[in-house]
Specification:
- The protein is α+β, with helices and mostly antiparallel strands.
- The chain is 20% helix and 29% strand.
- The chain has one domain (3-187, 241-245): Aminopeptidase (3-Layer(aba) Sandwich).
- Strands 1, 2, 3, 4, 5, 6, 7, 8 and 9 form a 9-stranded mixed sheet that branches.
- Strand 7 (213-215) and strand 8 (224-227) form a beta hairpin.
- The longest helix has 15 residues, at 119-133.
- It is globular.
Length: 247
């Protein structure tokens, strides 16, 4: 496979493919309302910060995508609300007409049938290179560890800093970031907040959500808290802030 990675700004004809790519994200992950501050504008305002990859054997069919957002931090500490927080910062930076001084990764998605083929590290390397070309000295990322869903009750602070005998992170996706030159900075304890009624959660997951208590949802990094008598259920996802110095 000869991968071609470009910005969406360079290949706007791929915009229609952007969200049709077969993926493995669970349905509930698409219900974070903060996402509406970025994704509707990804193919216009943020096209320079979206990377798209296709294969020369099947040009025009996406094999992977990655998204970044620039923002103005002015030295502020990385936010505890991680993914949600950095998207909000990006929107405020744009609306205020300020010049960004920082950039954050938001996601890397690989087509379902090509997962496990080593494409994610290539997309991460491309993100680092593109952020450097844009003049940024650091790329940060609110990383979603890909093995954490197997341990939803383990605190992220414990999981994130767990290492193997060779000193690298226990989690495979965190390991990719560290091998690429990233450094784990801190946990973002409320990186995404997804709230809905029990009926909505039933639709998103196929689970009963018929009683008060914690519910383990496949793909979730922590349990969902259901309050049946108050007719709502809330998922708070922790992520891990990783810093990639560039240069």
């Amino acid at each position: 496979m000869a991968l071609q990675i470009t910005t969406l700004a360079e290949r706007p004809e791929l915009a229609s493919e952007l969200w049709d790519m077969d993926h493995t994200w669970p349905e509930f992950m698409f219900q974070d309302p903060i996402a509406d501050l970025f994704y509707p504008f990804a193919d216009s305002t943020y096209a320079e910060y979206v990377l798209v990859a296709d294969d020369d054997a099947d040009p025009g069919r996406l094999v992977a995508r990655s998204c970044m957002i620039p923002y103005r931090a002015e030295g502020a500490e990385l936010p505890d609300d991680g993914w949600d927080g950095v998207i909000r910062w990006g929107l405020l930076t744009r609306e205020r007409g300020e010049r960004p001084d920082s950039i954050s990764a938001l996601e890397i998605s690989v087509r379902r049938d090509l997962q496990g083929k080593g494409l994610s590290p290539l997309m991460l390397a491309a993100m680092r290179a593109h952020a450097a070309r844009l003049g940024f000295s650091e790329l940060v990322a609110p990383v979603r560890p890909n093995g954490k869903h197997l341990e939803p009750h383990t605190p992220m602070i414990e999981y994130a800093y767990r290492t193997r005998d060779d000193g690298l992170p226990h989690d495979a996706w965190l390991r990719v970031h560290v091998r690429a030159g990233g450094k784990i900075i801190k946990v973002a304890p409320r990186s995404m907040v997804i709230a809905g009624t029990p009926a909505e959660w039933r639709g998103w997951t196929g689970l009963p959500f018929d009683r008060t208590g914690v519910v383990e949802v496949p793909g979730a990094l922590s349990p969902v808290h259901c309050h049946a008598e108050h007719d709502h259920a809330v998922y708070v996802e922790p992520n891990v802030w990783v810093s990639h110095p560039l240069g």
